[in-house]
Structures are given as C-alpha cells and as structure tokens.
Amino acid sequence: NIMPYPAYMEESIHKVAATRPSRLEETFSRIPQAEREGLVNEFHPDYKKEYLRELKIGPNKGSLAPDEIADLLEGNSRIDPDEVNLDDVDYDVDVLVIGCGGAGGAAALLAEENGASVLLATKLRLGDANTVGAQAGTQAADRPNDSPLLHYLDAMGGGHFTNDPALVEALVKDAPDAIGWLESLGVNWDKEPDGSYHELSGGGTCRRRMHSCRDYTGLEEMRVIRDEIRQRHMHGRTLDFVEFQPAIELILDDKGQVAGAILMNLETREMTIVRAKAVVIATGGMGRIHIQGFPTTNHYGATADGLVLAYRAGCPLIHIDTMQYHPTGAAFPVQFGDY
Predict the structure, then answer these.
(1) CA separation for the pair 42, 15 (Å, rounded)
(2) Which GO terms of the molecular function aspect are on file (predicted)?
(3) Cβ neighbours, 10 Å, residue 257
C-alpha cells in the first residue's frame, strides 16, 4: 500500500488508529467557569492587559490597542511628499479595490458587472489570501426551516451583540444571493442527490446553513473568482488588476474624502498614482503579525494593512483591543503532557 503521509508521521498515525476505539468511548465534562477564566487569562492575548497601550495620535487617540497594532497605527508614512506628484495620474477609474481575497475579488467583479471601470490592486498574487485556506463553508439561510432573521440572531449572539446591526442585516439578507452568484460563476457546492444544497451545522447556529465544497470551500470560491477576473481582463472588459503593488497611502481630495491611493511596486519601489471615485478596502485581517506572540495559521499577507491605511486617512477603528481567533490550531495546555 502507498502511504499518503510521509514516514515521519506514521508513528503518530498508528497511535491515533490504535487509540481510536477507546477515545470514542470517552466523555468530557464541562470545565468550571473559574477554570475557563484562568485559561483565557493565562493564554488569550485579549486578557493580557499589560500588553495594551493608549494610542497617542489619530482618530482613536486615548483608546487601548495591543503594542503591535499601536506601532503600526502610530508609524510614519512611507511617502515623501516631495517625491510624489499627484497630478501625474497612472490610473483613473470609477472604483479602486485594494486587496484580492474573496471579498476584494467579489467586490471588483460586482462593480464591473454594474458598469464601473475597476482597478484591483493586490499586495501579493491575485487570490493570494486567507480565503484559500478557509475550509468549513459559507453560511446562508436558504432552507425552508431557516430564515435571515434566525441567521441574524445567531450572528449577533456570536458577536456578544457588539456587531454593527446594519452590517449583520446586510450579510444575512445578501447571503443566499451570494451563494447563487458564486454557483453561477462555477463554484461546485456540495449537493444532495435531489440537487439541493448539502448544508452543515456551524458553530453557534440554530439551523444547518453552512454551504461547503468538501473541506476546501474557500479555495474553490477563490478559484472561480480569480479565473473570472482574469477572463474579464483578457476579454477587454473594464476590469484591470495589478499584482505585487500594495496601496501604501490613500489620497484625500480637498474635502477630505478618499479619492484614490498610492501604490508601490514591491520589486522596483516605483510609485503608482490611482484616482478613483470610490475605494474599497478589502485587505483582510491581522493574524499574521501574531498579537502578543500568539501563533496563528493566517496567510502571510494578513498584516493589518487596510486598518493602517484607513486610520491614516482619518477613519476611526472599532474593537481594536480584541482579536477573534478560530481555535483550530489551539490546544488545551494539559494535553501537551502526553507528548
């Protein structure tokens, strides 16, 4: 038989197989609340208040943020104003989308579908983002026993009711259409024999509404979004894209409104001036800067770029003293005792 795993993993695999029957019979009691608090206080970055500090400048001046975030928000610009001529415009478009994961790619496609000229700028390669590592699925309330209202309540509860209600409402109402739109582009959703969507349970949900593509949902979504962007670009549509050119500063007009951005070629350091009627920031999260040394499996492009861009343009940020972590790579510390 051909072993699908490298030899150095065989010992662990055999151990898992040998102990599976006994582990299936195990039950685990819920840990007491005091013990829960002890664990998060010791290990979770949000609870280590000694690593938070007050911001000294900007819209969130006086707010607490982790040292790593504060360093970025309080940092100097990479732009020397004397070396940049904003009148020398390289791209003049209706919409500039910064970032090309699932959100940025979808925003660019939908803007182009609605008649806008679009430039999509990404720091790395097209589609090189956290989206490709998303496994479980995409939530949408489209079953007879489900509704956007139930989805809304689940999402608000999951966020401890700190979510922006208007954004959550838009999410749950648009989700079913988004599933259909992605399928129209070529996403191969898992289906039941009768052709209906095969939907799974998700954390904190009262109904099955997770649409999946095996265990590589994000990769499948990004595949079709990326291919569609390339096809439209190749066939002369009003959608252009540039790779390895991150936005390093937003451009404001005389009214203080965002009117474009300055991009920088990562290889040549050449600056590109983009003028746009609207700018969409879709640069992803910040897990890769490892807040307070907490390890994550985030894509190496998730370094809070969009937050810094927006902050420098005068946009206040919310919830910067807390980070959301999916516990896939975290382990109960006591478990390490057997390894």
Answers:
(1) 30
(2) oxidoreductase activity
(3) 12
Residue 19 CA to residue 151 CA, distance in Å, equals 38
Sign of CA dihedral 293, 294, 300, 303: negative
Instruction: Give, for 109, the enclosing helix (H) or strand (E).
Output: helix 102-113
User: DSSP of 215-283, one letter per residue?
Assistant: T-HHHHHHHHHHHHHHHHHHTT-SEEEESS--EEEEEE-TTS-EEEEEEE-TTT--EEEEEEEEEEE--
Q: How many residues are given for the chain? A: 339
Domain boundaries, the chain: 136-215
pTM to 2 decimal places: 0.87
Provide the token pair at 271.
């600056």
Cα separation, 311 vs 55, whole angstroms: 12
Q: 201-242: per-residue pLDDT in tens?
A: 988 999 999 999 999 999 999 999 999 999 999 998 999 999
Measured CA to CA, the distance from residue 220 to residue 209 in angstroms comes to 18
